[in-house]
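New to this. Comment on this protein:
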Amino acid sequence: MAEKRRIPKRKIIVPKECYFCTQKKEPTYADAASLQKFVSDRGKIIMRTRTGLCARHQRRLTTAIKHARHLALMSFVAKD
């Protein structure tokens, strides 16, 4: 029987405080540059456990990114 390979887990460094709470601002679709920090290189929205956002701002961030995509301020997929 073949032995199973052990893949080392990556240690995720999570910020302790929410980015938007510390900056005292809300995520808006018009500020596409700051929204880009929370999108992976493939165009997916990064989960809350990785970004360190609070639940309230993660929900608002998601809707802001979706609005920015519909208005063509951000792309839906990664560029090749």
In short: Residues 19-70 form a domain with the 30s Ribosomal Protein S18 fold (CATH 4.10.640.10). The chain is about 35% helix and 0% strand.
